[in-house]
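From the pipeline queue, job 12 of 40. The input is one protein chain; the requested action is below.

Action: predict structure.
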Amino acid sequence: MTASEKTAGSTALPPQTAYNDPPAWVAEAVIYQIFPDRFRRSRRVHDQRLLALKPWGSDPTEQGFQGGDLYGVIDSLDHLQAMGVTCLYLTPIFSSAANHRYHAYDYLEVDPLLGGDAALDALISAVHHRGMRIVLDGVFNHCGRGFWAFHHVVENGAASPYRDWFHIQQWPLKPYPSDGESCGYDCWWAIPDLPKFNHANPAVANYLLTVARHWLERGIDGWRLDVPDEVPQEFWLAFRRVVREVNADAWIVGEIWGDARFWLQGDQFDGVMNYRLGWSTLGWAGGDGLRQGYQNPDYPLQPRSTEELLSIWSATSNWYRPEVNRAQLNLLDSHDVPRALHSLNGDLKALKLALLLLFLQPGAPCIYYGTEAGLAGGPDSERSSGPEPACREAFPWDQPWSADLGTYIHQLAELRRQHAVIQQGELSWRSVGSDGLVAQAKGLEIWINRSRHESLALPDPQASAEMLWSTEAATAVGPIAAQSAALLVTTPR
């Protein structure tokens, strides 16, 4: 869902439990986030025929379906694997009246517009055949007002046996209230479209746990959980037990925007969406060139000094055990915030530095779909806090890309694969002047220069060094050019 004021909720940590470590595969993963309606249209979904879909590439408004489907994802797997992607994260795919599908009306049916259950089965099979994984988005705090049980309550009022599935305040319910009129029930952020579940009702908890179990048994490899800070802890304790019973290696990642220690004690989630890494990295890479109109206290886009960046990184990583840090979903952007290239005012060199920093952190780097094509959607207005439909634009498969970063992303994925010290979080960081960063570990040095005008001089060598990789395709060890980086292998003299 959209960001705005998603906070960590309670600051008190739950009682210490025996640690239940996250799955080890996450540390080696490269994630690719897909917004299905806008990713790729295969034209092989029977249920789309003769429907009034919006033309591909239309203005990405909150309303309107453009017809991306799961067969389109299958058609793109060669492209994704060529970039080094090993795991797909799909925003919701269940039947819904919204193109983002956070308004589900049936959690046990893949939306027919996406190809239905058969398309998901085919996608799971294709992904696993390639040695890849797939994670789905679970929206268990609320549903759409078309959800079957809520519809039953609307039609039958207090006589409905499902009345206690929701938080009813008054009768009759008014799911389409006039301005200033109460809808009669609790809903997410007071939006009548999104009635909140009553998790204290065992029937509700059982239904949602059945949903979690069903799709894991169908073959998915994990759950990303929407607004989990608004769901009682007791439900997540039970959720983890169910997930681990079905698949001990499944990944549970929560949408928590800040301090997530409450949920990462080994009994609820494995990791969270690490937005702190995203906004701090963009703030450093963009510097004074960063676009600053976006108003979101949980995603504060503003220029960051090198010392500020390292302080934020250190504080965040110190909140968690190393095993948890290696299970984070690290990201620069998503469907809920402006695209990174938008925030960086179209500066591709700054984006390349930000992506490099993303791939150098412990945890799984996540690429938002279309980053490789230079998509740059942002808020509809300069001073905005969301929602952000503009960042959900259609992938330009049949049009010239504004940039092609696919090869570069592949290089970053290879760096992580070849150097275990990166995956394990063994890099130590320090600043060099106001614009330089150096990461070091076991004979590796990565020098990063964000300055737009000045090169970064290397110190007098204390060791012999060999250039392994550079953003500028340099082959000789020397000063780091403006807005570039280099990886060196050093051997003590």
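Job complete. Residues 428-492 form a domain with the Immunoglobulin-like fold (CATH 2.60.40.1180).
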